[in-house]
Amino acid sequence: MDDSIVFDRDTLGTRFMEKYDPPGLAYFDFSGIQLLLEEAGSKSMLYFWVEVIHAAFDEPRSDWVEFIKDPQLVHRHEMDVFRKPDGEEWMAFFSDRSGNLLDTVTYIFG
């Protein structure tokens, strides 16, 4: 994990956001697209920010995208490096035609 953080931050120049250890997660920002590195999981995951997650989920889509499940509330934020306090983080995971796992995410503030 530490080598990956050094590479993405120092070699690629990606903005390092936060590391959570445990459970072994590191977040980066690629100009508005978040990258999650997970020690115990898949090699990486891209998070695509959308304004309204339910609208993105309900839009007609091609056979290139398959949503795994409906949008879910995954986290209530207090003040942290990601967003303002008192927000909710919603996600809907999907896979592409090759089976790569991707994610849409939206933040709702109180």
Largest sheet properties: 8 strands, mixed
Beta-strand content estimate: over 45%
Strand tally, please?
8
Order of helices and strands: HEEEEHEEEE
Q: Can you count the helices?
A: 2
Number of domains: 2
Radius of gyration: 15 Å
Shape: globular
Distance between the termini: 34 Å
Backbone structural class: mainly beta
Mean pLDDT: 76
Unreliably modeled segments: none
In percent, how helical is the residue content? Answer: 10-25%
Notes on the structure:
The chain is mainly beta and 110 residues long. It has two domains: 1-49, no CATH class; 53-110, no CATH class. The chain has two helices and eight strands; from the N terminus they run αββββαββββ. Strands 1, 2, 3, 4, 5, 6, 7 and 8 form an eight-stranded mixed β-sheet that branches. The longest helix is centred in the first third of the chain and has 10 residues, at 2-11. The mean pLDDT is 76.
Brief sketch in words of this structure:
With 110 residues, the chain is mostly beta strands. 15% of the residues lie in helices and 46% in strands. Strand 3 and strand 4 form a beta hairpin.
